[in-house]
Amino acid sequence: MLTIGDARSGSIDSNIMPRHKQPIDQSPSRTLTHFGEELVRTAQGPILDVACGYGRNAIYVASFGVEVVCIDHDSDALDHIECLAKAHPLIPMRLDLLSDPWPFKRNSIGAIVNVHHYHPTLLDRFIESIGQGGCLYLETIGGQGCNYLELPPRGFILDQLRDQFDIAHYKENPVRSDVHDAASVKLFATKRPRDTMEATSGCSRSNSPRE
After folding, report:
1. Are strands 109-115 and 130-139 parallel, antiparallel or unpaired?
2. pLDDT tens digit string along 157-171?
3. Which of 47-61, 120-134, 192-206 has the lowest average pLDDT?
4. The whole model's pTM is what?
5. Cα Rg of the chain (Å, integer)
6. In whole angstroms, what is the distance from residue 131 CA to residue 62 CA?
7. Where are the extended beta strands (E) located within 32-180?
8. Partners of 187 in the β-ladder
């Protein structure tokens, strides 16, 4: 599946990435559960839960009988993942997502789950790393309070993905402020084969799969 060596080795800078609080509700993302089976079935490589926290979504994906690489910087969260790994096929991997080098090669990943830790640099890495036919499930935080400061502009994620991915689900909720036109996003997408990408490159898509 995936050879990581010492999966817990890596630098941590708590000033860059905040520490997680263990959620009271350990159930997985409700929207993710609509696409979990397809995500696992089409994966032709490692499945990553990026910014996995305490593993609620990783456990759900692993319930289909596959290994899930659980990536985070938080020592407490990864210690919890190690405990869960005694009963579930989880592989903890310590990585600061904003300062450490991204260790995965182009087209080497079978699927990525990314819930509540959006960053445009990560999105670029996901697009490059996911192999053809692999899936991306991405869910930003909501737009309550000042959360909009961490959200993408409206339509940004869709525009970044549309040349290489088929978008099966895209829900965008605008979060307006005086200076930002941001949106919270939930999406499920599959990376198209290379020949399909070449055939559709440069074509405009007027019917965006927005909800």
Report:
1. parallel
2. 999 999 999 999 999
3. 192-206
4. 0.82
5. 17
6. 20
7. 47-50, 68-72, 90-94, 109-115, 130-139, 165-176
8. 138, 170
